[in-house]
Amino acid sequence: MMAARNLCVAALLGSTLALTACGPQNAEITQSDLHVQAAGPAKDRVVGALPLVVRTYVKDSDGKDKEVSGATCRFQSREVSAKVTSPRRLVLPTYAQGARFKDRGAPAPVIVSCRGDGRKGATRITPVPIGSGANTTDKSTAYSGGTSLNVNTTSLTRRMASANPWMYGVEVKVVLK
What we know:
The protein is an alpha+beta fold. It has one domain. The chain is 15% helix and 38% strand. A six-stranded antiparallel beta sheet has the order 5-4-7-8-10-11, with no helix packed on it. Strands 1, 2, 3, 6 and 13 form a five-stranded mixed beta sheet that branches. It is elongated, with a radius of gyration of 20 Å. The termini are far apart. The N terminus is likely disordered.
């Protein structure tokens, strides 16, 4: 009985490892983290910082996303700006929110525009409250005219919306065309 159970556990573990090995692999981030400071009046609302990874992709012949490294990307908004090479981890500010601030203290969306190998693309990141579970990439646009839309919505309770700081997300994906 024990030998049969161990065999089942080994088979389950082996199939899990096989499935993991077949999944898409992200390019390794070899550059150090880039700490981005808030600018203007927003710097008075900074309550911390969280990492966000930028990755760039192209469509392969099957129409699937294939990650590419080495694209030059610019982050631009009223509060933050940076220039990086993908893939890269940025540490971006988080902002206090509350009724005492205009628009509850929400920072402006960030436009991430990238170029590499004669291709370009852009993505808009709309900040969300920490813990909302929402994907903060709300629109991905290729300058060649193609548009990809990924929208995740999460209903927030009034208490959560008023208590958690604003963040930019954990990963941003820019498709180059």
